[in-house]
Amino acid sequence: MIIVMKSGATDAQLRHIYNKVRQLGFHPHTIVGTERTVIGCVGDERGKVQLQALESADGVESVMPILKPYKLASKDMRHESSIVSVGNVSIGSSQFVVMAGPCSVESREQILASADFVKRPARKCCVVERSSLAPLHMHSKGWKKKD
Predict the structure, then answer these.
(1) Torsions phi, psi of 135, nearest 5?
(2) Is the model's pLDDT at 71 over the cut of 80?
(3) How far apart (Å, rounded) are the C-alpha atoms in residues 74 and 132?
(4) pLDDT of residue 84
(5) Alpha carbon separation from 6 to 19, 112, 143 (Å, rounded)
(6) Rounded to whole angstroms, how far apart are CA atoms 52 and 136?
(7) Hey, CA dihedral for 53, 42, 68, 93, is it positive or negative?
(8) The most confident of 10-24, 53-67, 117-131, by mean pLDDT
(9) Distance between CA atoms of 140 and 147, rounded to whole angstroms?
(10) How far is Cα 130 from Cα 106, in angstroms, rounded to an integer?
(11) From CA 7, how far away is CA 87, in angstroms rounded?
(12) What distance in Å separates the CA atoms of residue 99 and residue 127, rounded to the nearest whole number?
């Protein structure tokens, strides 16, 4: 992440941000330009949300990520397509795949009705957010919750 200070930011504002970056566990690297000062923040990416909150601090113009999110899944890192097989369905191939399902599971009947609907011709996959399945027992149709 980089923190771009406003033009005319005071030394006190710059010191405050520098110290805050260190408190958050990042290593600040200051770049002083003719118009602005930029602070590069090197450290664990999981703390970038806390750095983003510094955008509202006095003297800060913006806080920006350096790297693109999901870079390992992007075409920047790997140019060929990824193909994931789910049963007899190849996701990512030239085959058109429709996936559907509820965003959360409220009852056993709801997920079974959704799965039956998705199983109809031309539909391939029923997608359910993993933590939604925890309270359900889906063994009646041969489904098992995978860990």
Answers:
(1) -80, -5
(2) no
(3) 28
(4) 82
(5) 17, 55, 57
(6) 38
(7) negative
(8) 10-24
(9) 18
(10) 13
(11) 57
(12) 6
Angstrom distances, CA of residue 14 to CA of 18, 68, 129, 142: 6, 26, 43, 61
Task: List, as one string, the DSSP characters of the chain.
Answer: -EEEEPTT--HHHHHHHHHHHHHTT-EEEEEE-SS-EEEEEES-GGGHHHHHGGGGSTTEEEEE-SSPTTGGGSTTT--SPP-EEETTEEETSSS---EE--SS---HHHHHHHHHHHTSTT--EE---GGGGTT---GGGT-----
CA distances from 68 to 16, 41, 71, 77 (A): 27, 15, 6, 11
Of 84 and 22, the one with more pLDDT: 22
Number of residues that make up the chain: 147
Instruction: Match 């350096």 to its residue by tokens.
Output: 66
pLDDT at 113: 83
